[in-house]
Amino acid sequence: MRPTGLHKSILLAGCSAAAMFASGAALAQDDVIIVTAQKRDESIQDVPLAITALSGDFTREVNLDDVKDLVRYTPGVTGNSADSFIDTLSMRGILTNDFGAGGDPSIGLFKNGLYQGRNGAVVTSLYDMERAEVLRGPQGFLFGRNAIGGAISVHTARPNFDGVSGYIEADVAERNRFFGEGAINMPLSDVFAVRLALYGGHEDGYVDNAYFPDHDPLIEPEKYAGRFSALYSDGPFEAFFTAEYEDRKQSGSVYRATEGGPGYETLVDIFGVSVDGNGRDIDSDLQLGEADDSEILSLGLELTYDLGGAVITSLTGFKDHDYYYAEDFDGTPLGINAYAQDQSGNYFEQELRVVSDTDGPLSWYAGASFYNEEIDVLFTQAADEEVMCQFYWSYYGINSCSDYFAYYYYSFTPTPEGLVESNAVRGRYHGWAAYVDATLAITDQFDIGVGVRYSKDIKKFAISAPPVTSDLGPYFGVGFTTAEPLEDKQSWDAFTPRFIARYRPSDEWTVFASATRGFKSGGFGSFFISPSSVTYCGPFSTDCLGLTNADASPNAFDPEKVWSYEAGVKGSLFGGATRVDANVYYYQYKDLQVNVPGTGGGILVDNVGKVKGWGFEASTNTDLGEYFDLYFAGAYADTDVTNAEPLCDGTLACEGTSLGYVPKFSASAALRFNYPVAEGAIKASAEAFGQTKTYGGLLKPDYAVNDAYVDLSLRLGYASDAGWSVIGYVENVANELYYDGVSEGGNFIPAHYFGPSRPRTFGVLLSYEFGG
Q: DSSP code of 746?
């Protein structure tokens, strides 16, 4: 039978909160949570890592939509957003600043052990899940790819041999929301079982666009997905296969100017601009439209064989995707900067690992992996020609493109589509890695572990930019055109060690400390070339046009590196009624890969600055008597940035400041109630997550602040022992308005918010489980 979060005793006898909000995989055996975070079954109390895990039942009950929503209940992780990008996702202050296709994510996302890739392909829906694990800090020994900031690992429900079983669920709410989910498990023999899961639905948007008052509201998700999985298990051999397809149609990120700061004031002076609508609305011309649409196909095969004394596992994965994205980036009704991304790609990976399975003092695991990725992207930026001319030359008394061209004895012919600049990139990447990790028990209570990983990444990259039809030329967004693709090929490698010490003073408590070296490969910027001097020209100049490989090459950047130190404690109090997990950390991070303004047009990716970070993370799971349980998680984070002049207008104004997008405090909590009535139980819960204020950059101006917030949800209903349940809910009870983030903008693009919160929503969750 599929475990259900509606029955407290099924999840974990006497401690459902610990199973739902475990610091590891939510698998229960005799009141002990079993995790596989180190590739073998261990009690969560014994694992010397900072992990948070949520059961699949919990993700269903609280309507977690996709993998990024897991951050709501994970201490030390922030930066959720409603699009298919992960460039705002942050673990302990480490994020992926580059949104192009030539680098790698700082946070790795994995499904059933397989790497999920980059923007456009990496974000998929959560449905029919077994569990989800979030591992904080550098991860180089648990997966086939490096993850310098941390990893999010989800595991789908596997077929089982316990008989025909399944569930069906409907989520009905305001704004014509209807999402359905269901799965059926079918054993076809004593050794072979299959499982089919389906998911899909639609919800009307909640963001009005004052520029198009008659259009449908934005942030309007429509998603459909299906997964087939098969399990063959006979003696020492097991094979697990998955095939998954998802079609996602959503809105691109929406932006609203904060209506403050020098950039916005300049627009007011020149254009008399104003932004209509309330704080949850936008006022944008959407020159390139809006979209966040993807089709994603994933195949996975896991083969396991017990050799007797060791277990060998093979993981094979293939992923193919097509993605189209469009947004209006400037947050105003002016045609300053619209952005689109048309992308396709595929990814193949193979990992082979061996894990010891003996009772001796030495335990170990070793592995090797290989990947090959092909990615092709067309980037497009668009603007209004007259807006460009007025902004750049009104200071000189020139208020139209015709006047500007006439001043230089040229004529100007407007183009119907406006100023449209494009550039294409082609990436062909492959790499391999090998790792080994060993743990030696010095005594029954104390052991030490040492691991080392070698990684090598090889990237062949090409960038090209076609001619621009506008008379203004390619000097505002891209900065150049090419006569042929500009190509480069580079490789990067590194040895990264890890050291762990663990002490267990009793059966209830574990104390650990670790030091880990993290590494993220170098790469290429998607919007700039080198040397920068070839992009420094303007209208009436041809020096930046028709460039060849003799003139320029792609913008290459170096790897990121970090040393991360951590110490923690895990244990239980009050006879096991309360479980505690707490840790402190410190890291030294250098050569951050960040976007900085390039000369002329374009965005340069460069290695800038150093960051020192430290913080505290903790979670508790407590049974409050017979009917209540409580989960609480919180984190404190602080950072110190140095040598970051390119991010601070070329000055030392932000030397020693902290990362603006990292909240000092973030927390989440869930109070749950279960009261048996007749042949079922009354279920209720209150869930909250929130954080302190964040800023739009290192300079932390008062016109680019995302205020502190707390988002509260309430749920109440009845669950029958016969398998059906009806749960009513109110999400964002206080109708709190907050944003996914804020940016301090620049000279032309004003400071802006992006991603307004979903408003208060009333709904009901209906479900039925059968068989087992």
A: -
* DSSP E strand boundaries for 56-188: 77-78, 90-91, 107-111, 114-115, 129-136, 150-156, 165-173, 177-187
| Helices vs strands, H then E, count in the chain | 6, 40
Q: How far is it, in rounded angstroms, from Cα 618 to Cα 633?
A: 6
pLDDT tens, residue by residue, 260-310: 999 999 999 999 999 999 999 999 999 999 999 999 999 999 999 999 999
Burial call 131-165: b when 16+ CB within 10 Å, e when fewer: bbbbbbbbbbbbbbbbbbbbbbbbbbbbbbeeeeb
Task: Provide the pLDDT for residue 445.
Answer: 94
List pLDDT tens digits, range 152-184: 999 999 999 999 999 999 999 999 999 999 999
DSSP type of residue 467: -
Residues belonging to the chain: 772
Do the bridges between strand 107-111 and strand 150-156 make them parallel or antiparallel, or are there none, so unpaired? parallel
Terminal CA-CA length for the chain: 3
Instruction: Return the bridge partners of 290, or none.
Output: none
Residue 71 sits at φ, ψ, to 5 deg, of -65, -20
pLDDT tens for 681-707 read 999 999 999 999 999 989 999 999 999
Question: Looking at residue 81, what DSSP letter applies?
Answer: -
**Reported confidence tier of residue 20, pLDDT bands at 50, 70, 90:** very low
Q: How far apart are CA 67 and CA 87, in angstroms?
A: 14
- Tell me how far apart the alpha carbons of residues 743 and 258 are, in angstroms, rounded to a whole number: 9
DSSP state at residue 264: H
2-26 burial by CB neighbour count: b if 16+ within 10 A, else e?
Answer: bbbbbbbebbbeebbbbbbbbbbbb
Tell me the C-alpha to C-alpha distance, in Å, between residue 161 and each of 166, 244, 304: 13, 22, 18
pTM, 2 dp: 0.92
523 vs 490: CA distance, rounded Å: 8
CA distance 273 to 58: 46
**Beta-bridge partners for 607:** 593
Handedness of CA 40, 42, 48, 53 (dihedral sign): positive
What are the pLDDT digits (tens) for 222-235?
999 999 999 999 99
Query: Which of helix, strand or coil describes residue 761?
Result: strand
User: pLDDT digit string (tens) for 111-134?
Assistant: 999 999 899 888 899 999 998 889
Structure tokens at 556: 């290459």
Question: How far apart are the C-alpha atoms of 44 and 510, rounded to whole Å?
Answer: 10
* 41: pLDDT strictly greater than 70: no
**Six-digit token pair at 19?**
């199973």
With H, G, I as helix, E, B as strand and everything else as coil, classify residue 532. Answer: helix
Joined tokens for residue 654: 């932000």
